[in-house]
Amino acid sequence: MKFYSTNNTNLRVGFKEAVFNSMPKDKGLYMPVEIPYLGEKFISNLDEYTLPEIAFHIATSLLEGDIPAEDLKKIIYDAINFYAPVVELEKSTYVLELFHGPSLAFKDFGARFMSRVMSYFLAKGEKQLDVLVATSGDTGGAVALGFLGVPNTRVTILYPKGKVSNIQELQLTTNGQNIRALEIDGTFDDCQALVKQAFTDDELNNELRLTSANSINIARLIPQTFYYFNAYAQLLREGINKVIFAVPSGNFGNIGAGLLAWKMGLPVEQFIAATNVNDTVPKFLKTGVYQPKSSVATLSNAMDVGNPSNWVRIADMFKKDTDALKKQITGYAYTDEDTLKAIHEINAEYNYIACPHTAIAWRALRDWKHERNSDNVAGVFLSTAHPCKFPEVFNKNIADKIVIPEHVKALSEKESKAVSLDVDFAGFKKYLLENN
Ligand SMILES: *Cc1c(COP(=O)(O)O)cnc(C)c1O
């Protein structure tokens, strides 16, 4: 498959180039030249397939010719080795739990697939790939654990000192092997600025083969389509075939993948884009005016994005047909107060604990159902992270009930190691060069 730039459909590259460059020079995003239709037979028989089987089928339809089937199969079975269950909370309300991977967030799907694809494309004798990533919490853990032990790669994570939760920090600092953590005495934006400057530094680029592995990489988008098909498969087994998805959205990669799945033939009635007060997209869907703005800090901080990068992909899929787009996507935005209320309501009604991002999606689904008076469609909201990653959000009553997975508990027994640096590019550069 060739991939084009959303800014210039004539600019076409192969999958390997799209993966290593992340972003075309014209600053568009890569999209497949053709979105394959997966066919009635596959879709109506989805209930017969497992998650890796579904993933393999989708990946083959997109990447046949780029990676031979046997190799692709190995990548998939190694990357997608955890489950994504659909759990019924009440009649026609389901939660799709995407937090059963190593970092306890849906980003594991993208990071694990991308890391293995990159490693696969690094031919024998090629220079080691140096991944630089700035994180406000979730991305760093998924990328670190995604690349952990992957041959010929090394990851350097920059995180803001004192601004990530305890579990998030342990996920960054206890890995060893090919993962290093840098604790920066500044904010997430400072971390991101250091990484950005590194990519423009000639000396660093001569010494190191740098890549950002960031969330706009097409190799992170593709594996996120897998769990939408797999969720539908699980509902088919219950005799359900009318479904809507409510997606907690920040950079709009997750919902973008859902729309890609829909374009590939997955019959989804509608998508709900659920955001916090960073409501650029819900506003656009209401007013028709797309007005990016600076991000505002909220309790659902993985969605604090004022100018979602993946929106151009979604616009591209609708070829500027705003009416069709508005028909397929509805937007809802909520305050922190709404978020806390939703967390309590979910807990009171279903004895279920949702992370703040997940709670927003549930609330949006409920509001959608009230407005549409629609009970004959299964509403699935996506749970993007395990609540134990955001302990400061919950009151003691709820916090005490959160069951921390064993492999996460074990992290506190491990040696935690981070190098502390100031917000100073010269110091950061010196560290990279001296520790090469
Ligand atoms: C990254 C993240 C999101 C936002 O996902 P996008 O693909 O950027 O829209 C939502 N929830 C959690 C927990 C996340 O880590």
UniProtKB/TrEMBL annotation:
Residues 2-79 form the Threonine synthase N-terminal domain. GO terms for molecular function: pyridoxal phosphate binding; threonine synthase activity. Its EC number is 4.2.3.1. The keyword Protein biosynthesis does not apply. Its cofactor is pyridoxal 5'-phosphate. InterPro entries: Ser/Thr_deHydtase_PyrdxlP-BS, Thr_synth_N, Thr_synth_N_sf, Thr_synthase-like, Threonine_Synthase, TrpB-like_PALP, TrpB-like_PALP_sf. The modification N6-(pyridoxal phosphate)lysine is found at residue 107. It catalyses: O-phospho-L-homoserine + H2O = L-threonine + phosphate. Residues 96-369 form the Tryptophan synthase beta chain-like PALP domain. It is an enzyme of class 4 (lyase). Pathway: Amino-acid biosynthesis; L-threonine biosynthesis; L-threonine from L-aspartate: step 5/5. It comes from the Bacteria. Belongs to the threonine synthase family. PANTHER family: THREONINE SYNTHASE FAMILY MEMBER, THREONINE SYNTHASE-LIKE 2. This is Threonine synthase.
